[in-house]
Amino acid sequence: MFWSNVPFGIIALIWGLWILRVKPLAQLHKKVDGYGGIMIFVALAGLIIALSKGGELGWGDKQVIGGFAIFAIFTTIFLWHEHRSASPLLDLSLFESWTFSMGNIATFFNSFARTAVALLFALYYQFAFHQNALNAGLRILPITIGMLVISPIAGMLTKKAAIRVLASLGILISIAGLLLLLFVVGGNFSYGVTACGMLLIGVGTGLFLTPNTTEVMSSVPEQSRGVANGLRSMLYNLGQVLSTALSLTIVGAALPAYLKNVLYSGKNNVISAVDFAFVIHGYRWVIIALIGTSLLALAASWFRPQQKKAYESSSAAS
Question: What coarse category fits the chief subcellular location reported for this protein (predicted)?
Answer without folding.
Answer: membrane
